Amino acid sequence: MRINHFWAVHHWAPVLLAMPRMLRELAGDRSRGLLGHRLLTGSPRTYYVVQYWESKEKLYAYAAAPDMFHHRAWAMMNRKERKSKTRQHVGLWHEAYIVPEGSYESVYADMPTHGLAAATGVLPVESRGRYAADRYAYGAARASGGSPASTG
Q1: I need a labelling partner for 11 at 20 to 30 A (CA). Which of 3, 25, 148, 149 fits?
Q2: In order along the chain (152 residues), what is the average pLDDT of each group of 10 residues?
């Protein structure tokens, strides 16, 4: 979200407060599919939530579920957007990326568990190969049900 007008607190504060409420709701029911999340800020006016989901289907199901807070929050935003005098005080965007297993790598050195590792778990680098090509082969083989090829 992006705060476009700081003085319009009554317009952007409900949006800012809605995301932690949704995250608490999801944390209370792991079967909904949220594996983990990270709250970030880009500036005093820009806030991000990176989320890791089990599947796009579970993400869509949560977003559309009438009994979940996201549905009510989005309806509230749409009602406010229809009123011209309340528009443009807060900006929203959503980006989603579908990443198949074996198509990513995260390497952490001298870091606490963070990002994808916090959402999906940690494996020592050595257990999958010393070189990136070995580690990608391991992930691709796991995803396809085969055994990894060695790149020596």
Answers
A1: 25
A2: 92 90 95 94 94 94 94 81 70 87 79 86 75 71 54 38
